[in-house]
Amino acid sequence: MPGPATLVRVTITSTETRTGAAPAAVGRSSWLAVGAVGFGIFALVTTEFLPASLLPRIAADMGTTEGAAGQAVTATAVMGALTAPTIAALVPRLDRRTLLILLTLLGLLSNVLVAVAPSYWLLLASRVLLGAALAGFWAMALAVVGSILPADRMGRGMTIVNVGVSLATVVAVPVGTYLGEAWGWRPVFWLAAALSLVALLALAAWLPPVAPSGAPGLRTVVATARTRTMAVGLVAVGLVAGGHFAAFTYVRPAADLVPEMDPGRLALLLTVFGLGTFVGTVLSGQIADRRLRLGILVAPVLIGASTAAFAVLSGSYGAVVGAVAVWGAAFGGVPTLVMTWVARVEPDRLEPAGSLTTGMFQVAIASGAAVGGVLLDVFDVRVALVVAGAAAAVGGVLFASARKV
């Protein structure tokens, strides 16, 4: 197997070369490189979600409330929203392989500091480091994969990356809960540090050097955001992701609408959602490569239809399970479809476009949860589900109408 020293330095090729009629051959080393990026995302996102499964133990050990301990997740998201749009401009000339390795090392350091943190504030500061690592890594993933694979394989490449996200969302909370009960919360973060180390070694072994793409600097980021198609796309990302999180953040009170709901049925419901997300992620690569325009319209519309079905059919547990399965599958496809859309729209500015899109996802997570909470308090959870789903569907229509892809 060739090591990084034997691999040729890669750069993003021209649009004409990448979109020619004859599909470019993709070797095993290229897929290994993409897999290493996907595993890096898996390690970082797993770490992001761990506090959700360990809140009671962290709060008790730190002498604080569970709500305060939960700010470990908020700190990660806020730092992520700041880092994602600026990472490419802050290090415009640094080799992207080196950058991903350094960001993974930063995630590893965050885990170690959390594991030994003597106080709540040091724990919170350590999670800020994770926010920078995760958002920076994810923002660079599109450009790095785009430098390794031809345009007609981008959907499948981003699927590999986003499967890491899906697996992390399914695995992190239940495994973290189980191991936290068995070992305590600090050893769980030591295990997360070991996972980050494996990701770092995989990147060092399999990812070739990747030259920065496009003109450096914040000016390029601003210019990319101001193009009409990209601006419409960013609004669409905000609507789709914000709508999803406005609904999913409050899936627990929504589940209380179902008369037969109990802890076992709730666990099954969330498992169905997780499995649906995984299936949607796996299928989205082929759809993105072959029917992107249709896929990026249908997936958000299905989110809207399934959240509305949840609200309207909440009297039947079976109907709610079906709605949640469709919801999970539809949202599972969104990251791959969106990133492939971005690659088609801005093939020569993948880094700033990917950074802006990742930043908008982070903003949408926070704002969607906030808007959903207001709708829940002012009206009820049914209204929150319907409005959130409508926002997602409108986002899909915007994507499909922005530009023929």
Which descriptors would you attach to this protein?
mainly alpha, 2 domains, globular, Growth Hormone, Chain: A, 405 residues, 17 helices
List the helices and strands and how they pair.
Blueprint (H helix, E strand, L loop, with lengths): L14 H4 L9 H35 L3 H4 L1 H13 L3 H4 L5 H21 L3 H29 L5 H30 L1 H22 L11 H9 L1 H21 L2 H5 L7 H28 L1 H21 L4 H29 L4 H29 L2 H22 L3
Helix pairs in contact: 2-6, 2-7, 2-8, 2-9, 4-7, 4-16, 6-7, 6-9, 7-8, 7-16, 8-9, 8-13, 8-15, 10-16, 11-14, 11-15, 11-16, 11-17, 13-14, 13-15, 14-15, 14-17, 16-17
Main location: membrane
Keywords: Cell membrane, Membrane, Transmembrane, Transmembrane helix
Subcellular location: Cell membrane
Structure notes:
With 405 residues, this protein is mainly α. The protein folds into two domains: 4-12 and 27-206, MFS general substrate transporter like domains (Growth Hormone, Chain: A), CATH 1.20.1250.20; 218-402, Growth Hormone, Chain: A, CATH 1.20.1250.20. The protein has 17 helices and no strands. It is globular, with a radius of gyration of 20 Å. 53% of the residues are buried. InterPro entries: MFS (IPR011701), MFS_dom (IPR020846), MFS_Efflux_Transporters (IPR050189), MFS_trans_sf (IPR036259). This is MFS transporter. Residues 31-405 form the Major facilitator superfamily (MFS) profile domain.
